[in-house]
Amino acid sequence: MKIEQKLQQILDKSWSNIRLNREECKYLLSIDETSYASGLIRNTANSIIRSKNDNSAIILGQIGVEISPCPGKCKFCTFGDGHTKFEPSRIGQEELQEKMISFCKEGDLYALYLMTMHEYDLENFLNTIHYAKKIAPPTTQLWSNIGDTDLDTFKEIKKAGITGVYHVCRLGEGIDTSLKPENRIKTMQNALDAGLELYTCCEPIGPEHTIDQLVDNIFIGAEMGIYQHAAMRRVPVPGTPFAKYGQISELRLAHIVAVIALCTVTLPTMAYMGVHEPNQLSYASGANIITAESGANPRDCQSDTSKNRGMDMARCRKMLFECGFTNIRRGDESKIPLDFEYLVKTNSLD
To answer: Which of 22, 63, 289, 343 is the most buried (most CB within 10 A)?
Structure first.
């Protein structure tokens, strides 16, 4: 089947490690995800990402360390003040240790996110980092997923042991949330200025978002020197204002993953491509990050997501194996062969 010359030229640019521009990104996103052309886009992204990283994937962990009604009032988040049903709570050291051991016991966790609400107690968070640092193996990095933060605080967090920060200026920021887009972007820059690696995402993608909105969001991170980009579809969490608006398909999400991968893979700092929530279509379309979760989760009504939506380490290993990855990277970039014997060894077959 013959493909459009424009698409061929863009794919050739990607193979030649030439950065794509906004208009090319818009064009790729405009293509129907059920089409033959979409298959070419997804296969190209998949091949390029795997070739750059020796067919390796990474497993991240995330622990929600505290819950409270969040002043961000995000209409898609289970913790938003005004609609949350959660009471304030904070994870204790014993529970944190138990969850971390579960994540880290096989030594194949690349990094662990410690997540708070938008507003957080800095002293407690620093204590949590110090304690987590004692438990995490040397091959597992510690990352943070926290609210808007100034430069000096990020310097403190880095000194305590954090190496990377997840932060986004989300789709609909300032409209679907009570947060200011300029503050979100400033926080991302603060993290970089503090010497931390920046991980971001185009999220939370819903059926109503336009191609222009997606591209504008994608290029916030693409123009900042990110270490990781990603795509996440919005989950219609019961009880949230946006629950009634539905969600995009995993196939559409996989198409968006592929486009973001092609638009950012040439960045010298870009190392990995994420997707959330994990799905096999996206891992055959350019994604190579999978996340296991425990504790609080903004897409879940359970106080401990590991008992509901969150995947554990065994399921993460199995999904990566099924999607054809042959290596798991540790946080020091060393590799573990991902084969059937490794799944047996780590009790990851069920």
So the answer is: 63
E strands within 36-129? 56-64, 66-67, 89-90, 111-115
With a CB cutoff of 8 Å and minimum separation 6, the contacts of 108 are: 59, 313, 317, 328, 330, 336, 346
Q: Two tokens at 263?
A: 């638009």
* The Cα angle at residue 68 between residues 92 and 200, in degrees rounded to 5: 90
What pairing do the DSSP bridges indicate for beta strands 202-205 and 272-276? unpaired
Token digits of residue 129: 């980092």
Question: In this predicted model, what pLDDT tens digit does every residue of 119-160 receive, in sequence order?
Answer: 889 999 999 999 999 999 999 999 999 999 999 999 999 999
DSSP 290-338: EEEEEE--TT-SSSSGGGTT---HHHHHHHHHHTT--EEE-TTS-EEE-
Residue by residue, DSSP assigns 108-150 as: ---EEEEE--SS--HHHHHHHHHHHHHHS-TT-EEEEE-SS--
pLDDT band at 296 (very low <50, low <70, confident <90, very high): low
| H/E element, 229 | strand 228-233
Tell me the C-alpha distance between 120 and 50, whole Å.
Answer: 38
Q: Mapping DSSP to helix (H, G, I), strand (E, B) and coil, where does residue 24 land?
A: helix
Q: In one letter, which amino acid is 42?
A: R
Please give the model's pTM, rounded to 2 decimal places: 0.93
Q: What domains are there in the chain, each with its CATH number?
A: 19-344 (3.20.20.70)
